[in-house]
Amino acid sequence: MSFTPITHTCQYNEEDGSIRMYLRGRPVVLYGPSDQDALDPAKVAPPPQNKLKLEWVYGYRGKDCRSNLYLLPTGEIVYFVAAVVVLFNVEEQCQRHYTGHTDDVKCIAIHPNKLIIASGQCAGHDRLDARPHIRVWNSVSLATLAVIGAGHIERAVACLTFSRADGGSLLAAVDDGPDHTISVWEWQRPDKGHCIAETKCSVDTVVAAEFHPLDRNQIVTCGKGHIAFWTLDASNVLYKRMGIFETRDKPKYVTCLGFNHNGDVISGDSNGNLIVWGRGTNTIQKLVRGVHSGSVFSVCSLKDGGVVSGGGKDGRLVLFDAELQPTGTENVIEGHYGGVRVVAEGRGSQLFVGTTKNCILHGDMELGFSPAVLGHVDEIWGLAAHPTLPQFVSGSWDRLLQLWDPLSHSTVWSKDIEERAQSCAWSSDGSVIAVGCVSGKWLVFDPVSRELVAQHVDGVEPIQTIQYSPDNKYVAIGSRDNFIYIYQVDDDCTRYSRLGKCLGHSSFITHLDWSEDSQYIRSNSGDYELLYWNATTCRQITTPTSIRDVAWATNNCPITFQTVGVWPENADGTDINSCTRSHDNRLTATGDDFGKVKLFAYPVTQPKSLCHQYGGHSSHVTCVRFLLDDSRLVSAGGLDSSLMQWVVE
Fold first, then answer.
1. What are phi and psi of 62, to 5 degrees?
2. Count of CB atoms within 10 A of residue 413's CB?
3. Which of 122, 128, 153, 165 has a CB 3.0–4.6 Å from the CB of 216, allowing a cystine?
4. How far apart are CA 29 and CA 506, in angstroms?
């Protein structure tokens, strides 16, 4: 057999129309259809004419980030998830996105002019491009004004604050390195910002930093076992005084900071206490004990002088007057939303509340709160688009199954299924949703009543993929235990009887597709095999040439002749987590381990194929799926727990 090398990882054999591709040094031979034109190995396939535009981001990072929700004069709330800063007008239900970051955004700060925003990120995949840094940008035009601190900041930007008493010419940052260095920048200087002072902040974790609103050159920081009052002197040297606690009131953590109208500092801590530190001093002026059971995660000073504190564990919101006397007005957010992460003042008496379970609620202390943003709190691996309606479903390790309406950008329902979800599928008629779980269980739900209509167990390993046959008579379940289990489907997808299991893969099943006639299955595995099966007999078809002309209903397997070009040079096979083909057979999208969503023209048979690529997700993209009319693509994130919706333009 004469293989012509195309790239150092691909060879083409013209005689039998096959491509041999190497993934981690293992050869995979892929046969094209018999009418396939000969490939010109030197040719580079162009990218598709279509592009993607980020339309909506579902989610909010509240589980492990602080001070991350603000209201802008435009009526938009600003917050972040993954590598995107979201500007969301809740009343008008429209979002804009700042996408300048290359990895996880960890903090934001709003300039006193309420127009300019600074956001800080952690170190990314790309050594040079994604060093931890700060971006300063205009919230109306979304133009980047300054990029600061690359090569200077260690690990990540943990806290950011603009100076307030001098009109915002300075920006202070605390990094996440071992010394938690605090640095002060003249961010408007043309030479990428100019660091005028820096010093070690604390060996202990620092969770918040705020410039004083009334006193120039004063900064307050707090964190594990400390609150510190910093002064930037005339010669640009930072020095600090530590806050002095009575021994019995010294908390494990000082968790949040605020300022009252007199310029006193208010701190909340892990003992559930609020403390007022007299302006310009490092001593306690007033202590309010036991406001919350568990930590106080947020102190919000209101326009009228009042103060709202939020409990990270007890979920309570407590309103105080300007003298920090309780007013008697309280509210508690429902437990399934999590605890209070941050409170931000809205218009009038409205408040926005970010929660520890990645939700944003809005409402007021009198009438209570309803969700503006609902999210997942753990990795999302299950994603499936409804076959006939504009809807999609997501399943996460957080045990939530959520049905979404992409046109109104809202959650239709959210259900705790009491199992960690690994994969999802709609039946071909859309009458049920099947969910593969980490435990080896798989569950079938009615999307209208949300009732569980069937449940089965196959093995004890995660169910990596589930797919119904196009005629809806069978369902194939690909497990991490190397087997594919085939069931017959009866009674409107509520009764399942096992036909057998497909044995032959020597590693876990990663993806599978059905043929259009529901006769055959093809599957990929963790060791980069492509195998074919007769679905009804569960037997392997060992002569791939015999079914080279079979039409496949989907292209979720990334290792196929039609998707050779989605693999980058030097790919190690684990790079691509998900692959999907549009229903009109014109586009292929992939999600990879580097947080990228890529769009190719289908079929991607040319080993050198160009694509459009998009950032936004900060960790691995676990799944990508086109909605039924191909107008949109949805992508799911791993560690960033976010869903992103893209318009196909």
1. -110, -15
2. 12
3. 165
4. 17
Torsion of CA 94, 358, 108, 307, to 10 degrees: 100
- Name the nearest CA neighbour of 410 among 425, 433, 392: 392
Going by C-alpha positions, the residue among 373, 374, 412 that lies closest to residue 393 is 412
Question: Tokens 């994130």 map to which residue?
Answer: 637
Q: How many residues does the chain have?
A: 649
Residue-wise pLDDT for 335-381, tens only, equals 999 999 999 999 999 999 999 999 999 999 999 999 999 999 999 99
| 3-state SS track over 441-475 | EEEEECCCCCCEEEEEECCCCCEEEEEECCCCCEE
| Distance between CA atoms of residues 177 and 156, nearest Å | 7
Residue type, 492: D
**pLDDT per position as a tens digit, 177-207:** 899 999 999 999 877 678 999 999 888 999 9
3 pLDDT above the threshold of 70:
no
Long-range contacts of 374-378 (CB under 8 A, 24+ apart): 374/58, 374/402, 374/411, 374/414, 375/58, 375/59, 375/60, 375/81, 375/641, 375/642, 376/59, 376/400, 376/402, 376/641, 376/642, 376/643, 377/63, 377/338, 377/641, 378/420, 378/641
Whether pLDDT at 2 is above 50 = no
- Measured from the Cβ of residue 348, the count of other Cβ atoms closer than 10 Å reads 8
Tell me if 135 sits within 8 A of 147, measured CB to CB: yes
Instruction: For CA atoms 604, 606, 608, 609, give the dihedral sign.
Output: negative
pLDDT, tens digit (0-9, with 9 covering 90-100), for 18-40: 999 888 888 999 999 998 888 88
SS3 333: coil
β-bridge pairing 70-71 and 400-405: unpaired
Q: Dihedrals φ, ψ of 35, to 5°?
A: -95, 15
Q: Which of 532, 587, 593 is nearest to 565 (CA)?
A: 587
SS3 per-residue string spanning 348-387: CCCEEEEECCCCEEEEECCCEEEEEECCCCCCEEEEEECC
337 by DSSP, 3-state: which? helix
Cα 536–Cα 542–Cα 545 angle in degrees, nearest 5: 105
pTM: 0.93
pLDDT in tens, 587-639: 999 999 989 999 999 999 999 999 999 999 988 999 999 999 999 999 999 98
Planar angle of CA 406, 63, 442, nearest 5 degrees = 60
Q: Among 53, 93, 101, 56, which Cα is nearest to 77's?
A: 93
557 and 576 Cβ atoms separated by less than 8 Å:
no
C-alpha 263/C-alpha 279 separation (Å) is 6
In the DSSP assignment, the letter for residue 608 is S
> Can you name the residues that pair with 275 across neighbouring β-strands?
267, 287
Q: 10 Å Cβ neighbour count for 270?
A: 19
